[in-house]
Amino acid sequence: MSYDSSLDSSLLDSALSGYGWTAALAEDFAPLAEAGLVPARIVRVDRGRCDAVLADPETGEPRTVRLDTRPVGDADMINCPCTGDWAAVDLGAQPMAAVAALLPRSTAIIRKVAGKRSDGQVLAANVDTVLIASSLAADPDLGRIERFLALAWESGAEPVVVLTKADLVDDAEFIREDVEAVAPGVTVLVVSAETGEGMDVLRACTPGTTALIGQSGVGKSTLTNALAGADVMTVQATRTVDEKGRHTTTTRELTALPGGGVLIDTPGLREVGLYGGEGVDLAFADIAELAEECRFHDCGHHTEPGCAVQAALTDGTLPQRRWDSYRKLQRENEWIASRSDARLASARLRKWKTITKSMRGAGSSARR
Fold this sequence. Notes:
Elements: H1 9-17, H2 23-34, E1 38-46, E2 49-55, E3 62-68, E4 86-90, E5 98-102, E6 108-112, E7 120-125, E8 129-135, H3 142-155, E9 158-164, H4 172-181, E10 187-190, H5 199-204, E11 209-213, H6 220-228, E12 253-256, E13 262-265, H7 279-283, H8 285-291, H9 308-315, H10 320-367
Parallel strand pairs: 8-9, 8-11, 9-10, 11-13
Antiparallel strand pairs: 1-2, 1-4, 2-3, 4-5, 6-7, 12-13
Pfam families: RsgA_GTPase
Cofactor: Zn(2+)
Protein name: Small ribosomal subunit biogenesis GTPase RsgA
């Protein structure tokens, strides 16, 4: 495929506007355009390749192309191409068109990889809203919702909790009140993709780029199909015994919505490891407000006199479960921070060893 540089830039911008392209992005991309690269939004990544939407060189209409991501694939996991990224594409690269660079991300949903490693994995990039899906067909796991909220707040996007499968229960509003209590400042919606309940409100809450996260079986693929107005995702039956579904979505995939904006559906997350930052404090804003009322600014919230947190635990204003959840997530963040510091220290040590070795070699050569 060759690129017609004479094609009106306004046509190119129009082709990508439905995918989130803006005048600000076009301005940032200008130096890359001068180098002969073209903008595209990554819609799917798979084993060194990706699908991306760009403006067709001949018609100016949106077109999906297959690209090689390996030219930027030697970066760490966080900086590798991800669904939602804006890419600079070299259409003349051989043996196939390739991603030459990525534009800086405005937001990114980053979780810790599974297991004992402390590396981060980007689930979606340049997201405006994070939909946290939880099924009403089983009792919501409040601790898991808090964990998802911390992940969403840390991304820089706006979280919204979506309680799905409202058609299966009679007490949806009571459950919503319980969830709202652990989601201060966050919109909590009750919806049913089957009956359409709450879907209009949900659509109004998802302008721009929206990412959908949650466990398997909570109805993410069904929600995606309902919002897209088409069967763009395969839906598998959920086991009625425990309401756990199979992983119907195996990769992050970006879908254009008919009313404008795009939706990124993600695979069901068994583990939701946090990757540090201020997301925990934002998810537990009520506890942060209590801490400000403590007598001592460095209160550890244990046995210190005048501790507002302990007082709230004693009178039941702050549930013990929520406090325990907060402390658990704080400890995870502290562990991530310590591992990150250790990696940085190790990298600095390797750098100085290399410099010292080089200097010794240079001095030895000079003496000869």
